[in-house]
């Protein structure tokens, strides 16, 4: 059955037939407001009603704000930074400087907001992470502060400012009693200036203290910083597997368990292999993958017998590997 075509519309009285009707030109869209870009010949405000500043005028505005900070007039500095940011809202340095000014007048929430904005605008800029870490520390969010410092060191492992900031934040945190003896040992071993070692130690302390989310951020930052020691990397893999397990992320946890096992095999560390196989066995069992669970527990028991580890040899999970 053919589908009938709809009837053609008839022109209304006094209207022009469609074929003779002149086409209306589409209306031009309104011109967008100028986007503020630092370094251009002129820096425009977002509102067309406000004047634009020349580059020289903008630079002078920034100079005045920095001078006010230098003179200790932080309220005036903030007003001037506000005006500068109104014409260049993508300037991460201005947000960082205003964050520092807010810190000086103890407006820590605003300081944190500006630090985060600076970091989002330039994720590779270490100073933004430092500002964020300091603000979080003053807000009493010690675990998050340590995570911010560690993330900054992942961007710039050579930043002494971030390393010192992280150590100071750790020593002012509730973890000081447990962390201080370890840090003193690092000083004796001349490892207290090693970003990887300091960050990984702090990450494992966060894990022990139950700050699992922050520990993941810190420990993964340690891996980004890197180390030549395969054994140290293995310890971070092991800690990350525990952290993700506590967070309920079994996929991530299992992945790090496998990396921990690979490192132990490479190093010929049978104790590490035994531990990793036991962890993998438990992980696979929880996921319902009983074949892999039994395989790993069987390896665990064989290694335990070689190591004459009676505690593991007689554990119910290890014995289940033979069933």
Automatic annotation (TrEMBL):
Signal peptide (from-to): none
Residues that span the membrane, as ranges: none
Keywords assigned: Repeat, TPR repeat
The TPR repeat ranges on this chain: 126-159
InterPro entries, per database record: TPR-like_helical_dom_sf (IPR011990), TPR_rpt (IPR019734)
Alphabetized SMART domains for the sequence: TPR
SUPFAM superfamilies, per database record: TPR-like
Region (Disordered), start-end ranges: 1-40
Gene Ontology molecular function, alphabetical: Hsp90 protein binding
Protein name, entry field: Tetratricopeptide repeat protein 28-like isoform X2
Organism: Castor canadensis
